[in-house]
């Protein structure tokens, strides 16, 4: 078994991204599965170029994509990705698309194929605040989730995939009154999500 887990580089003026801080510290093996850890750029075009190649080459059994959702107080497991890129904030390449499709001719949306409710139950069972989110937004996180699910569908793979948003780390919240979570807790949450996905 093989699990691909991704996090993002910093963006929006932040010096770190808690998604990558957590992913990079994961062990190389969880539940008997090989853990492949990759950092993605916070760019619409970069993600659409890099992620399909990564999925097709690695052919993982599970794909768990992670990203920062500053302002959210808990771990949020995304239910759906939509075929829209729309942002007033430029990505790290300075690109700010408006009402553009992630992929022309692709479906309007894809649902996560991870066991999202089982993941949330398992996280809460470990006393980690968690919930299901019904919107991944229209920024790079949504594009990443849509790209992964579209790639898997087009390739006819049976890979389970989805996206998990994480709060700011405590370090990021030192100078702003925003909800935050310890990176160690985020990392534990990802381990729980991986184990649950491998079982489900």
UniProtKB/TrEMBL annotation:
Cell division listed as a keyword: no
One GO CC term, this protein: cytosol
Protein name: Pyrrolidone-carboxylate peptidase
Enzyme class: hydrolase
Subcellular location: Cytoplasm
Organism from which the protein derives: Thermococcus thioreducens
Alphabetized UniProt keyword annotations: Cytoplasm, Hydrolase, Protease, Thiol protease
Record InterPro entries: Peptidase_C15, Peptidase_C15-like, Peptidase_C15-like_sf, PGP-I_bact-type, PGPEP1_Cys_AS, PGPEP1_Glu_AS
Domain of life per record: Archaea
Subunit annotation: Homotetramer.
Molecular function in Gene Ontology: pyroglutamyl-peptidase activity
EC number(s) from the headed UniProt entry: 3.4.19.3
Chain's role: Removes 5-oxoproline from various penultimate amino acid residues except L-proline.
Cytoplasm recorded as keyword: yes
Gene that encodes it: pcp
Family of this protein: Belongs to the peptidase C15 family.
């Amino acid at each position: 078994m093989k699990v691909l887990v991704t996090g993002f580089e910093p963006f929006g003026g932040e010096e770190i991204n808690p998604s990558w801080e957590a992913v990079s510290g994961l062990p190389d093996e969880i539940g008997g599965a090989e853990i492949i850890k990759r950092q993605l750029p916070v760019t619409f075009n970069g993600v659409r170029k890099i992620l399909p190649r990564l999925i097709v080459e690695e052919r993982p059994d599970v794909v768990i994509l992670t990203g920062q959702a500053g302002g959210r107080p808990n771990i949020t497991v995304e239910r759906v990705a939509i075929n829209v890129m729309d942002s007033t904030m430029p990505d790290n390449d300075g690109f700010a698309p408006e009402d553009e499709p992630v992929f022309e001719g692709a479906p309007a949306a894809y649902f996560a194929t991870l066991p999202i409710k089982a993941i949330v139950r398992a996280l809460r069972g470990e006393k980690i605040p968690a919930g299901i989110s019904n919107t991944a937004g229209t920024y790079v996180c949504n594009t990443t989730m849509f790209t992964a699910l579209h790639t898997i569908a087009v390739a006819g793979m049976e890979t389970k995939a989805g996206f998990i948003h994480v709060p700011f780390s405590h370090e990021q919240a030192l100078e702003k009154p925003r909800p935050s979570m310890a990176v160690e807790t985020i990392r534990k949450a990802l381990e729980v999500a991986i184990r649950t996905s491998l079982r489900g």
